[in-house]
Amino acid sequence: MAARKYGQYCGVVSALELVGERWALLIVRDLLVGPRRYSDLKAGLPRIPTNILSTRLKELQEGGVVRRVPTVRAGYELTEYGRELEDVVLALGRWGFKAMGDPKEGDIVTTDSLTMAFRTAFRADAARGLPGSTYLVHVGDVSLVLRTSADGLRVNPLHGQLPAVAARLRDEDAAAPDLEFAAGPGIRRLISGELSASDAVTRGVVHVLRGDPALLERFARTFHLDP
After folding, report:
1. Angstrom distance (rounded) from CA 104 to CA 90
2. Given the DSSP bridges, would you call strands 66-69 and 142-149 parallel, antiparallel or unpaired?
3. Looking at residue 99, what DSSP letter applies?
4. Of 61, 75, 104, 190, which sits 20 to 30 A from 150 (CA to CA)?
5. How many CB atoms lie within 10 A of CB 195?
6. CA distance 210 to 16
7. C-alpha angle with apex 37: 34 to 43, nearest 5 degrees?
């Protein structure tokens, strides 16, 4: 399938011809988290047909956005040119947040999508005025460690079922979180400011598993998107 050509001399058109085809920006989104094997990309985008994934990867390589990773079998990573899309993807995430609403049946959350969601919501200006913090966040089957500081945000995924993940982290004193909590898609209401931290706990949107529940307010100040 040939990439769509719009027949206009314009930077927006050039961008769309490179990454505007269906699934292309989601592949870029996942590669912004880090290099991925073909199988990793397919697992993170379970509805993408295999022939479309192969085609998009080929197109992105031809456009200089993606390259093969020579040290990883069937691995891909963004080029320097491709990594310049990070601000674009984060801006699109902020813009799209306003239209998200509640999840539809069959909608899933993946490790890479949640990682990018927190990177989108991170408020560096707020973090600079707050103590550095470590949060262990469970959303569905995805568990992430979020470390915030004046220097920025670091996101580390943890793989495994929630109880096992929590036990593993508790055994690593150096990595012990200041706050550990579990949430569902309703965490969107906390990040948007629709619910205060205390209301999110009271209504069962967030379940604090470890640490001072008052730290959830710090989390909400650090991760915020306008609805």
Report:
1. 22
2. unpaired
3. T
4. 190
5. 20
6. 45
7. 95
pLDDT in tens, 30-51: 999 999 999 999 999 999 999 9
Q: How far is CA 139 from CA 25, 111, 187, in A?
A: 23, 9, 8
Distance of CA 41 to the CA centre of its chain: 14
How confident is the model at residue 132, as a pLDDT? Answer: 95
d(CA 27, CA 41): 7
Alpha helix ranges (H) inside 63-183: 80-83, 86-97, 111-121, 124-128, 162-170
What is the DSSP secondary structure assignment for residue 104, as one 8-state letter?
P
Amino acid letter, 55: T
Distance CA 224, CA 227 (A): 9
Q: Between 71 and 173, whose confidence is greater? A: 71
128 within 8 A of 117, measured Cβ to Cβ: no
DSSP state, 213?
Answer: T
Residue 227 and residue 97 in contact, taking contact as beta carbons nearer than 8 Å: yes
Nearest to 19 by CA among 92, 73, 72: 92
Q: Is the dihedral of CA 195, 90, 58, 23 positive or negative?
A: positive
Question: What is the C-alpha end-to-end distance of the chain, expressed in Å?
Answer: 38
Q: Give the type of residue at 86.
A: E
Joined together, the tokens standing for residue 207 give: 């379940």
